[in-house]
Each structure stands twice: as structure tokens, then as C-alpha cells.
Description:
The complex is a heterodimer of chains A (310) and B (367).
Chain A: H1 10-51, H2 63-99, H3 102-117, H4 120-145, H5 163-188, H6 191-199, H7 204-233, H8 236-241, H9 259-266, H10 273-302
Helix pairs in contact in A: 1-10, 2-3, 2-5, 2-7, 3-5, 4-5, 5-7, 6-7, 7-10, 9-10
Chain B: H1 21-40, H2 44-67, H3 69-107, H4 122-131, H5 140-171, H6 176-189, H7 193-207, H8 215-239, H9 243-251, H10 256-284, H11 288-293, H12 312-321, H13 330-360
Helix pairs in contact in B: 1-2, 2-3, 3-13, 5-8, 5-10, 5-12, 6-8, 7-8, 8-10, 9-10, 10-13, 12-13
Amino acid sequence: MTTNSLTTSQGAGRAGDKVFSGAAMAAGCLILAVLFGVALFLVVQAIPALTAPAEDIQGGNGFFAYIAPIVVGTLIAAVIALVIATPVAIGVALFISHYAPRRLAAGLGYVVDLLAAIPSVVYGAWGAAFLAKEISPAYDWLATYLGWIPIFEGPASATGKTILTAGIVLSVMVLPIITSLSREIFLQTPKLHEEAALALGATRWEMIKMAVLPFGRPGIISAIMLGLGRALGETMAVALVLSSGVLTASLIQSGNQTIAAEIALNFPEASGIKVNTLIAAGLVLFVITLGVNMIARWIITRHKEFSGAN
Amino acid sequence: MSATVVRKRSALTKGQLPKFAPYIVLAVALIVGAAIMALIGFNAFGWGIVSAILFAVGLVSWSGAVEGSRKAKDKLATCLVVGSFLIALLPLISVIFTVLVNGIPGLITPGFLGTSMNGVTGAFDNKAVEEGAPVLGGIYHALLGTLQITLLATVISVPVGLLTSIYLVEYGNDRPLARAITFFVDVMTGIPSIVAGLFAAAFFFAIVGPGTKTGAVAAVALSVLMIPVVVRSSEEMLKIVPNELREASYALGVRKWRTITKVVIPTAISGIASGVTLAIARVIGETAPILVTAGFATTINNNVFGGWMASLPTFIYTQILNPTSPSNPEPSDQRAWGAALVLIILVMLLNLGARLIARLFAPKTGR
Lengths: 310, 367
């Protein structure tokens, strides 16, 4: 007699239920353990750098003197990336959700997602080999005519390998993140709001300003925060593009450094206390990005009932 | 008696630009732009930018004069939105063009895909530049390393990620543990890749010994990045399995775990598989975590658990930053771009594969 495989062996089924639900829960707990482990192992390996005598740390002035300039450099690069990427990303999201012909919209969205598919090292190589060269005349122009603004102080880097170039490459990398999240939000705008605005005689821009943007604001903010998290942690674009140096106010001279690039450039050859210093730097980066991401997620969950972006 | 009909313009249609207005403005902008560029030195990119600005200014001011400020603002917004899309396309086109132009010479070099960098020294590269000898060396070791590391990362991440998503959807019931897992999976998606690499390095330094760098360490680092992606996509897919299917199965007396393995997962398998493929595509191009965990190798290493291992992204990185021959970096650049082209092709194939899987294995809903 053949038995249906779904109904065989009662006892095994009960045990199977227990094993299966246990395995599922264990996997979930493993993830929590891993995240906890990330924090724990980073802290354990970082402690020697924090307690070491100041002169052992690179630069000779202790860990905090070492980390402060590269934290600032990281923030500068991330801010440049966001300042460039945010308006473009919102424009692209609006284009796909409200301007492009309906039939093309999905395809165009896929094209923008392709930007996210390109590996970061390829962006780094592109930035170093193509963008830096092409953009250096623009830096010369900035140094000549806007040199009185501290951030454009000359002489401009001849190679173009500056923090501004790195920021531009970063902005290309965060663009798809902000775009796809904002697009999702814009598509969620209640159709009735939009149609009511249009029926009252609003132009398309007025409709977007009155119905779409206010509805999407929390989503846009959290998309920007997630983009910020990505820009803070991105390594390769900066490591390959920037010719690093000490903290400099001018964005068009070589100089500045970010945490991620500092680790990538030095970790492979590091030994002894240097390893601990770099792991401590990684811990600082981890804490910063963790904070940014948690705020972003908190904003999303707080507006969960209005938005679909999670 | 004849009355001449005087056509009056309705107040509602008063002051509209003709339908063909944008085309006229575009043509004028292109011509004027070309003229301006001819004065200051012509290049196609500058011509595009100048024409676009002229087009926007021209159309908006014409519309402002004829239609009033509201319509003009609308036109301005349209120009900006379309413009931002075109701006977003520029880097995409530029990156792909750069990689193709620089990568194809490397890719078609004989032996590029089949040989490693074992024994290829700066002397060979100098010879290649100075005497025109063929560029030696290839990416076989890096390709092999990438495939091994990614495969091991997939083997670790998929069971953990899939089981977690099953827990969240089938067993979680919004319990505190499930909520905590959801929150921290979200947080994990934001971990910088280099921090994931440092974690794996710190973990193995503490467990195995300082300086442990193998393919397996890199695979652990990649898993940290891959697990949250797998969890998120599988969770979404399991959630859209209709509850009726589960209830029908329970009504037949089938146990929960059999229901999940025989009904829920087969229904969602296409989405899960395509999510896993996208997750692989995401981690296969990661450079930073491999850089700090697997070291650099120039030879073929078939053992994931011992010795340094090369990978495509780190190969690109080292060939650019530390050329094999510092005095003649051209052969190294050529190899790096060739490897970049191979990497992009791999990622694009994986993305395409994900779409195909989603389409081919989608559950049959029609009757």
C-alpha cells in the first residue's frame, strides 16, 4: 500500500515540528549573536589601542588625536555625496513615478537600479582613471574664481584626486539607494489626493508640491539617512580616488582621509598595535553608521502606517 | 444675409504655448549652444550642457511671458526633473563605456582568463611596454578565489537567512524576539562592508591566532553582509504566500513543518531563489571585506581554509594601487580593467539570472 508522504509517521511529525521550529529560532538568534559578536570582538580587539601609551599610536598623540581628523574627513565626504545626490535622486524618483510615460517607468527604474549593481571597486577605478582627470580643469577654474571661499582655496590638485572627486563618486553610489526608496514612497501617495489637486486646477508641479512631497517627507528623510549610512561606510571609492593626507579645509586640494579608506589602505600591511588601532577606528565607524541607520529605521517605523517603504 | 463668425478665444485657453513650442526652443537652444561652443572651443559634453541650460531658460521665460508664472514654474520643475534623470544616466553610461573601452584589450589577451599571476614580475611588464611583448598574467586565480569565497558565503548565508525568515513569518507572531530580529536585520543591512571584514578578521584573530587570513574568513565576512539581504527578500516572499494554502494544508491534518517545507516554500521558491541570486550579486563585488580578511595572492589557491586567496575585486584594487611594475603601470592597468569587465559581466549575469528565475519558476496562478 502506498502512503501519502504528507500523512506518514505521526511521531516523526511531532519531533519534526519541534526540530524545525527550534532550528528556525536558532537561526534568528544566531543573527542577533553575530551582531552582538561584531560589537564584542571589535571592542575586545580595540581596547589595546585605547589603553596603549600615546606615543605608540600612529602620529604619537594617542588614539583620539589619530581618529578625530579622519572622522571629520569621513563626514566631509559623506556630506558632499548627500548634497549632490539628494536633489538629483528626488528628481529621478519623481521622474520615474510621475513624469515618465507609464509604459517606460519600470524599465527606467531598472536602469537606475543598474547603478547600484556596479561593484564599488569599479566606481573607484572609474573615479581615479576617468573622473579625476576630466574634472581637474574645473578645479582650476574654482581655485581661480572662487578661491576666496575657504573650501575652494587653491592651488587645486593637478591630478584631481581630491575629497570633492571622492564625494562625487560616492554621490553616484548613494544615488540609487535614495532614488529607489523615494520612488516607492512617491508611488504610495494616495491617488485621491493627487486627483483632487489636479481637479482643483493645480499644475503638475503644484500637485507634487501639495500632495506628493508632504506625504513622502518622512520616507525621503529616512532614504537620505540610509544613503548617509552607505556613504559613511563606503571604502573603495575613497581608497582608490583620494590621494589622502592631513585634514584640509579646501576640498580641491589633495588631503583628508576617511575611516574606511584608512583601514583598507593600512590593514593589509599592519601588525601589532597598528592592527588594534585600525580595528578601533572600525569600531568608531560602526558606532556612527549604527546610529545613523537606527535613526533612519526609527523614522520609517514611526511612519509605518503611512508609508510602505519597509 | 450672412453673418461672419468671429472666433473668440476662450478665457480658459488664453495664453497657451503652441504644442510644438518645446521643439522650437530645443532647436534654437541647440543652434545657439553650438554657436557659443564654437566661440570657446567645441566639445560634445559642453554643447549638451549649454544647450540644456538654454533650453530650460528659453522655455521657462517664454512660458512665463505667455502663460503666467504658475505654468512657468511647472515647466521649470519638469525641466529640472527630466534633467536630473539625464544627469543620473551620465555616470552609468560613462562607467560602462570606460570599462568596455579599457577592459576589452585586457579581456581578449590570450590566456587572460586561463592563467594566474604566478611568476609574472615587473620585468615581464617592462618588456611588454618597451619591446611590445605580449602582456602576461591573468585572472584565473582571482576568478577561482571569488567563486570559492562567494560559494562558501552562500552556503553559510542561505540556510541561516532562510530559516530566520521562516521564523519571522511562521513562528514569530510579532513576539519581542521576532521584533528584535527584524530591527537588527535592518540595522545589519547598514553595516559598512569594511566593518564586516574587520569583524571576521577580529573573530578569527581571537579564535585561531593573529594574522589568520584565509578564504574562509572572507566568506564569514561576506556572510555578515549577505544574511540580512537574504532574510529581507525571503521574508517578503514568504509573506505573500496566501494564508488559504496554509489553512488548507492544516485542514488536511498536515503538521506545521511539513506545511512549510511542502507548501509554503515551494510556492515562494522563485522569489526566494531570485532574492538569493541578487544577494550573491551584491557580495561578489565587495572589495573591502576581502581586502582585510583574505590577503593578496598571485597564485592559485584551491583551499578556502588555508593560505591567502585572491579575488577579482582585490585583484583590481592591487593592480591599480600597486602595479606589478611600478615604472610601467600600463600592463597592470590593462589587467585591472579586464578584471573589472569580467566582474561587471558576472554581476549583470547574476542580476539577469535573478529576473529569469523569478519569471520562470513563478508559481502557476492561472487555472
